[in-house]
Amino acid sequence: MAKVLAQAPARKGPQTAIRIREAALELFSRLGFERANMAQIAAEAGVSQATLHYHFEDKFQLWRAAMLQLRAVIGEEERLLEAAMDSPPEVQLRMAMRLFLQISWRHPALGRIVALEGMAGGERLEWLDAHLIGPRNRRLAELAKAAIDSGALKPFPAEMLIITLQSAAAGVINLAPMMKTSFDVDVSQAPARAAHEQLILDALLGGLLTDPSAMT
Amino acid sequence: MAKVLAQAPARKGPQTAIRIREAALELFSRLGFERANMAQIAAEAGVSQATLHYHFEDKFQLWRAAMLQLRAVIGEEERLLEAAMDSPPEVQLRMAMRLFLQISWRHPALGRIVALEGMAGGERLEWLDAHLIGPRNRRLAELAKAAIDSGALKPFPAEMLIITLQSAAAGVINLAPMMKTSFDVDVSQAPARAAHEQLILDALLGGLLTDPSAMT
DNA sequence: AGTATTTCTGACTTTGTAATCAGAAACTAA
DNA sequence: TTAGTTTCTGATTACAAAGTCAGAAATACT
What we know:
Two copies of one chain form a homodimer. Chain A is mainly α.
């Protein structure tokens, strides 16, 4: 008995899809596509699992909807960069690198997802390249090339700077568990953020040695 | 009919466990713990899935057995470093960093696994720290601290150098799919290896600018 | 009011994967 | 040869996770 009784009711408001997207971004960025499961996302959003499939056809489409929320972040970065468009390339490059690092800190989800999917390859990476990170990567490489051509930087393959920057930005966030385990140090807080930014910018653009001539 | 007929026979030789370990390392490093599945590993090793469970109790223990194969790599690194034990700390540090990068290139599995598990945290990371990477990380940090104390390096949090080095080493291997997608460049080959090693060492220890005073 | 539409859900199906197990084949020792 | 041990396997179980669906509840429309 009491079988067909209380079918649970509905209408969580028009915010439902938004809450789902936000919960999805949170979990996808923290756990990655496969480890984040629909049940968790549904619970986090406060809806049933079936509701996820009502608003989004399948897991991949939900993932894309979640990722699209990051477009504003990239857009903001782009806008700030345009302000420096008339500076010499090495100044623009430095600014672009600083922005890259700052945004990685402010929105750890972006760096985590790029690292996660960038390692795996596949259709999600291709989507990210087309809709999120491709233009930014290529703009950075162009800046590096221009700075090299102008003689401000030593010649080196420009893509290597991207990969180093991306690795550094993502690594400091993503490898926080390793640093905690190996050193019992929490590198995810503000002081570490400042130290890391300075290290990367100083190192990649200034040199770490107090006397660069001392060691070839 | 033909039901209890040909039960398939056995004896693949004493190499079986070794082949399984090797196949497991290959797949765990390429795909990570969860995406690599027992069926694939069994197929790669040329045995049935049940044989995996005969030699190794469960997936986690197989993973640990696979990881132990990397101990020789770390051991070799350690031995090479001891040869330079009497040099000044910044020379030792430079050598340690170069070894770190070279070994990451020669054994991509190590860097991939550290990146994969270092992002996720959990019991596998703790095992890695205890049995594989912890001592190396701490030795590097000590070297950096010594070099800073001797005045050869600008002061900075030594752990940040580890995370940057680890990120760079792992990143250039792991983010190869992203570089391929964004730039259609293959960074997993020897020429890229050399360029990257030089960039990291030059940058982190020498400075990238031709004129360091030009840009504060 | 009644009817249609939208939003949501519990229950179900399907699929992929780790783990178990009884027993076959090969090897060893008597 | 025969009895016992080791190595290996197909078949099965157990379980987790994505995706489907009929229908309930709220809202909108007439």
